[in-house]
Write a structure and sequence with these properties.
Helices cover about 70% and strands about 0% of the residues. The chain is mostly helical. It has a domain of about 50 residues.
């Protein structure tokens, strides 16, 4: 099942209403020479599709197909232009308007995305997909009542829609209503047993309760997509929260073997090693992060703590200063430097 993008990490940030999206708000028809843009020669598939478009300039579906290709290549502005062209050629396709709204939403242009979602509804007022996209937008802005309203409209159209129950679960989760959140995610899984995101959310909620059933959901999620190391990492967190540090370390190491760029696994493993008085081993974890992400202030600070515990004051000072330079609001390195007497 192809699902629209859902932001389901803890929604805690204050929303930023951005104006403009790389110059992509205009609904003007794409210029005639647009298809001669050199960027379309940068990829063989794009080049081939552009030739099809030039041969069939009135085919809206070809622009939509190329827009999907552009999205995969992270060329959002061009993708929007293609969807705009598609919508001008076939004015009855709500999905083209909804696609523009989704791109704008992903780019945090909330006002712009809502406009295009409303255009999609004007073409197809009962479309459950668009109603759920709008619900997701209201979830992001924490307008819970409007979000529930949109979900209910979608579920009245299709009572078996797993996305609707998943979004309800996300709403309840953000409202700290764990009981109803779990119930909604379970319903989503009942409607679609392959709904991996619902399984992961259930795992996270049960893990927070230290309920071992979390491990079953994580195992199932991993079986559905073994390329994603998150379930392995989450298993480590579960063991760590229970105080089972031996198994926690083992899971974090498995996670790193699976994905050597999984930064959180290094941090958690380093934290455990540090508190086991394995300072040198902890240092190696933070040193790896510094090399993988040289702009990560937390990595420099944690490595600095290791240096300090290893009696390497000058190296510790250097790392604390790097952390502070990367994030001027980061208080921990400032405190550390004051304690070392080099900052007043």
């Amino acid at each position: 099942m192809k699902r629209f993008s859902i932001l389901f990490a803890g929604i805690t940030a204050i929303i930023l209403l951005l104006t403009g999206c790389k110059g992509c708000h205009s609904s003007n028809v794409v210029a005639d020479d647009y298809n001669n843009n050199p960027v379309f020669n940068s990829d063989p598939n794009l080049r081939q599709m552009t030739e099809h478009i030039k041969s069939n300039p009135g085919d809206a579906s070809l622009y939509a197909i190329r827009a999907g290709m552009l999205l995969k290549l992270k060329m959002d502005s061009l993708a929007i232009k293609d969807y705009q062209k598609a919508s001008s050629l076939d004015t009855n396709k709500a999905e083209y308007y909804g696609a523009i709204g989704q791109i704008l939403f992903d780019d945090k242009d909330i006002n712009g995305s809502l406009v295009w979602f409303q255009k999609a509804l004007a073409k197809d007022p009962a479309d459950p997909i668009t109603h759920l996209k709008i619900a997701n937008l209201f979830l992001y802005t924490r307008d819970y009542a409007k979000a529930f309203q949109q979900i209910d409209i979608a579920l009245r159209k299709d009572v078996h829609n797993p996305e609707g129950y998943f979004l309800k679960g996300m709403l309840y989760k953000d409202m700290k209503d764990t009981l109803h959140s779990i119930s909604s995610f379970q319903t989503a899984l009942q409607e679609d047993p392959d709904f991996r995101d619902a399984a992961i959310q259930l795992a996270l909620l049960y893990s927070a309760k230290k309920d071992p059933i979390a491990m079953q959901y994580l195992d199932n999620a991993y079986k559905k997509d073994s390329t994603d190391a998150f379930p392995i990492f989450a298993r480590g967190v579960f063991y760590q929260n229970k105080g089972d540090l031996v198994n926690a370390k083992e899971e974090y190491r498995k996670c790193i073997i699976k994905d050597r760029h999984y930064i959180d696994a290094y941090f958690n493993l380093g934290y455990i090693l540090m508190h086991e008085d394995s300072v040198e081993k902890a240092f190696r974890q933070y040193d790896i992060v510094v090399n993988l992400q040289p702009d990560n202030p937390t990595a420099y600070y944690d490595r600095g703590v290791c240096y300090e515990n290893m009696k390497k004051k000058s190296e510790a000072i250097m790392d604390y200063r790097r952390a502070m330079a990367l994030d001027t609001s980061y208080s921990s390195p400032k405190i550390a430097l004051r304690q070392l007497g080099v900052l007043h």
